[in-house]
Amino acid sequence: MDKKQQILELDNQIRVLQNEKRQLEPGADDPLTEQDIEYLFTGDDACFPADDHAEIRRLWNMYVAKKSLREWSILCHKKSCEKGWHDEDDKMSEREMIACYLMNLHSEVSEAWEAFRKNQHNEPCDKADKMTKAGIIPLTCLEEEFADIVIRTLEDAHALGINIESAVERKLAFNELRPHRHGGKLA
Questions:
Q1: 140: β partners
Q2: Tens digit of pLDDT for each residue in 99-126?
Q3: N or C: which end of the chain has fewer CB within 10 A?
Q4: DSSP assignment string, 72-128
């Protein structure tokens, strides 16, 4: 098994363990402890070679483990920087950065709209073959564009110093105070 397969296997084993524990503890949201996960590496039925433990755990924690919105924001920005998407940020004013980020976000929404308009939103995305070869479950066009919208929003919020988790929490709290359809808006 290569590293990618081991990570997917770890995720699968964790889901199995979660389901088993949920049956024993009905209503428990996320009953796994660090000890439960460690058992997958050290228990009688450990399914990963000892020399790979640290690397598999590191990769699983980075890509699969439950994260806060703030942690996702930091990770999305880090990965975006690694791929060169923020190389020019230091040459732009804040106003230019915001405009650039919003236009890129708008382009992702437009790509989702175009896929829907062409009735291709439920079709495999244009990267489906590469995803399959990499062992990743392919996305539909709509899934891919919604993921891009979220990723861009999270990475750009972090780049602009916005604590997106706090902002979402406060906005949802305010929305609770608003009337149905915010007082009669049609859309």
A1: 124
A2: 999 999 999 999 999 999 999 999 999 9
A3: C
A4: HHHHHHHHHHHTTTTTTGGGS-HHHHHHHHHHHHHHHHHHHHHHHHTT-TTSBPTTH
Measured CA to CA, the distance from residue 21 to residue 15 in angstroms comes to: 10
Is residue 41 within 8 Å of residue 53, measured between CB atoms? yes
State what percent of residues in the chain have pLDDT above 70. Answer: 70
Q: For residue 37, what are its two tokens?
A: 């996960």
Instruction: Show the tokens assigned to 179.
Output: 């009337």
Count of CB atoms situated within 10 Å of the CB of 48: 19
Distance from C-alpha of 88 to C-alpha of 184, rounded to nearest angstrom: 43
Nearest partner of 34 among 52, 9, 60, judged by Cα: 60
> Residue 76: how many CB atoms within 10 A of its CB?
21
Q: What is the pLDDT of residues 70-86, one digit of tens each?
A: 888 998 999 999 999 99
